[in-house]
Amino acid sequence: MSPRTNKPHEIVERALDLSRADGCVVIADEQSTANLRWAGNALTTNGVTRGRTLTVVATVDGKEGTASGVVSRSAVTADELEPLVRAAEAAARGAQPAEDARPLVTGVPGSPDFQDAPAETSSAVFADFAPALGEAFARARAGGRELYGFANHELVSSYLGTSTGLRLRHDQPNGTLELNAKSPDRTRSAWAGRSTRDFKDVDPAALDAELAVRLGWAERRIALPAGRYETLLPPTAVADLLIYQIWSASGRDAAEGRTVFSKPGGGTRLGDRLTDLPLSLRSDPNAPGLESAPFVLAHSSGGDQSVFDNGLPLTATDWVREGVLSNLLTSRHSADLTGLPVAPGIDNLILDGGEDRSLEEMVANTERGLLLTCLWYIREVDPATLLLTGLTRDGVYLVENGEVSGEVNNFRFNESPVGLLGRATEAGRTEKTLPREWSDWFTRAAMPALRIPDFNMSSVSQGV
């Protein structure tokens, strides 16, 4: 049988039946993607793909503890299924006891659609978007600008089965759109991105109009030196910074004194106020438009993620509640080590609690400052302070007396997202956004624009 002729839930059940280990977890991920790419106001490529990945986690009990072995393979055929299970068992028998070993999760009600066929995407997802994109090409051509970019839609149906009786399933749609507008001489560039579940809420005409305005701003060039500037960070830039912050919010690392969330002298900073603004940073698997898996799907162990936690229910979690640090990332294992609440990672991130003001209204209330488009090439400099460095890209604009007066050069920045939250003087309206830097790994975010009175542009960058 081929990997497509057997239903995913049957593959999971067969792998569990083949298991000879003390415990077994099987995850079948069915993936389908559809994409469009374009350059110079014309479509260049499009395609649809299908795939399956099977992950088997075997656990073996011993006198010194429980060991685990994890093996993942794609396009597994019927003849390869048993060798895959045996490979996971062999890995477990050859491993040392797992530090994160815990009893496999039990007692979670099964998904009623566990035996249903996987959800699939196709080129039909672009039925309304593609014609609208074609109209945007025509307008851009008439306006003397060129559009480049891509649209990608992915649907992953994950089937989770365990030897303790869990039978769970989650369908995750994920759509991204990135659009660049360039002047014909390539000296001016502007970017916009969107995250979407189905492309029904994406308007190419509106995005093109937004980029046309930004290219117009860039007709006037102003050179500025490095320094600290009042800066308006748009939602996409805020998302890139705070995603890195949540990735760095390990409860264990904080308790061991290794992060910005460690308390001097020992312990963590839970309960500390991070900002005077009433902002809450939170994740919720049921957040409208940002829905994500409502249970742990762990294909490997590491940090505050554990394969032993597979199937553990996820609920809405406040990481920062009205300015106060409220939770750090933990698995059941790291929660036991640190005494912190169990708080696994959730695949979305929301910052809210700001004023009901658009970015345009925040610009209008700016006497003099910078307006960014997005950030990229973000790297960590110092984990103890979560100091990050990176570059601005595709447009930095000078705002004077409430209006954009021109485009300035790009910069390298050095800032900590924790420090930025502490110094922010204004937060705008929360809206869905696409992080520019992390869009390959994290797309479900909703953020406000932030006003930072002294953003550190550490040096001038020659990038476009």
TrEMBL record:
Give the top-rank taxon of the lineage listed in the UniProt record for this protein.
Answer: Bacteria
The molecular function terms in GO held by this entry are: metallopeptidase activity
Any GO BP annotation: proteolysis
* Domain Metalloprotease TldD/E C-terminal, first and last residues per copy: 227-458
Give any Pfam family that matches: PmbA_TldD_3rd
Q: Which InterPro entries match?
A: Metalloprtase-TldD/E_C, TldD/PmbA_N, TldD/PmbA_sf
Q: Where is this region: Disordered?
A: 93-118, 172-192
Residues annotated as coiled-coil are none
- State the name under which the record lists this protein: Peptidase
